[in-house]
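Field guide to reading this record: the first block holds the primary sequence, the second block holds the structure written as discrete tokens, and the final block holds curator observations. Each block starts with its own label. This record concerns 3-hydroxyacyl-[acyl-carrier-protein] dehydratase, catalogued under organism Lacticaseibacillus manihotivorans DSM 13343 = JCM 12514.

BLOCK 1 — SEQUENCE
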Amino acid sequence: MLEAQEIMQILPHRYPMLMVDRVLTLTPGQSAVGVKNVSVNEAIFQGHFPNNPIFPGVLQIEALAQTGAVVLLSLPENAGKTAFLGGVSKAKFRHMVRPGDVLRLEVSLDKVADGIGRGKGKAYVGEDLACAAELVFALQ
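BLOCK 2 — STRUCTURE
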């Protein structure tokens, strides 16, 4: 398990853009399960439907991408590099994410070669699938 301080040693993101609070399981180069605690105190809720706060889908994708970046950057040969989101396809949003929800982020990589990673991500609230997408990462 990785706590916030350990995640910040891997990812360059910081508040308010760090979207992974904890990594529950990690197999470097293959997969990870992370957690994003959605808080009503997040600045996004001041303007994103203030009377009906919903965590934006684009931030759900960002949380999945950051989880995938942890998978890539935890490989010893990628230490110190940056993983950029290179593409998103087949994104679908199925369940609203609201303040107080715990977003479980599951990412698995299908292929990693020549500085490019490809994989799939799914975000859940409880057992409900909130979103899913195919992701491409570029390492520099």
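BLOCK 3 — OBSERVATIONS
Residues 40 and 81 are 33 Å apart (CA to CA).
DSSP finds two helices and six strands in the chain.
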